Amino acid sequence: MMPAQARRLVLVPVLAGLGGLGSGACVLGNPNYNDGEATSSASASTSASTVSAGATGQGSASSTSAGTSTSGGVGESDSEGSASATTSDSGASASASGTTTTTGASASTTAAATEGSTSDSGTTTGNVDACDLSPGAWSIGPIEALNVLNSAYGESDPALLSDGLTLFFASNRPGVQGLYDSFRATRPAFGEPFGAPVDNEATYGWNSNFDESKVELRGDKLEVILSSDFMSPTHELWRGTRDALEESFFPLEVMPALSGHPDADLDPHISDDGYRLYFARRNAGQLDIMVSSRGSLDEPFGAPDGISELNTAVSEASPSLSDDERRIFFARLVGGQIDIYTAWRDEKNMAFGAPEPVDALNTLGADAEPYIAEVDGECELFFVSDRQDGSWDIFRAPIVSP
What we know:
The protein has helices at residues 4-10, 32-35, 111-115, 201-204, and strands at residues 50-53, 74-75, 79-80, 101-102, 107-108, 139-140, 142-145, 155-160, 166-171, 181-186, 198-199, 212-217, 223-228, 236-241, 253-254, 265-270, 276-283, 286-293, 305-306, 315-321, 327-334, 337-344, 356-357, 367-375, 378-385, 393-400. It is mainly beta.
């Protein structure tokens, strides 16, 4: 692993001020972004549970979004107990059971083993068929708290790798180097429970004594975009590449067309084909959803544009798109209430329709940071919420037929 001092020499750009956004991983809902102070909850539930079972279809819809790494490190042979959600022939969701946690022994492995395998062409297997997320064709299944991942502190920024087996997230639990650090958890199959989480420092080396929030890997796992305020009071999007899974992402670099913004860039989401980067940018006290494009996978992303049909006078952030880029989920802050919204467009080069709240996910508390995952024609949505005990936790819900 690259020593911390050497990593700091790699990540030395002088970054601009944060302009009041504060620190922390969760963009909209985390109190860290409101008052700049880390928060923790007095207690957290230790067993996973089904919180609610919404089944609301959505109508018409909307969009938007690199440090160091080393190969080798600690892998997991951890597993959760059973927690499943099933769908009947009619498309209705069945209940999900509670979970128990069994932690196996750690094993040394390479980053390639940690992230799963790729095909001979270098692309990750999975994502063969897209889910049908067109208006009226889907609903939210039973919502499950992933309490094997959650702590009494804060978890945020869930992002699933393209193989559907590894979930990256950020946490400010005791022992982290900075305000938030990057963690991951794995599971044996899509839809199965996750095992106990592990810190990403040993395998990737990109945690620091600053704030690492969302980590997004391209589908083939050869490119990473990381939001961090390393050596700066503001968050920038850092990019790292590698030629093979067993190689390191070092060095990470700030992309020229995105750097120098006086405020923060957060919540990166790479399109399924790798040619567009959706993210959230803070502008004059509010967050807007942006998109940046490029002509080749070997190039950094270019200058971004705001997605005007999604952005309002309030804050929008945490964009996550379906593989075909026609369905978007994001978070919106209105009057102090943070909710998850969605929008639809008929083609990825068109404007989105009017966004709608996803009522089956939203509560009177804060609900944010949705992440849509598609693997072999199945869909699930990860998000964060303070509904359990006031601290930020990660939840999961399958997307099913209405």
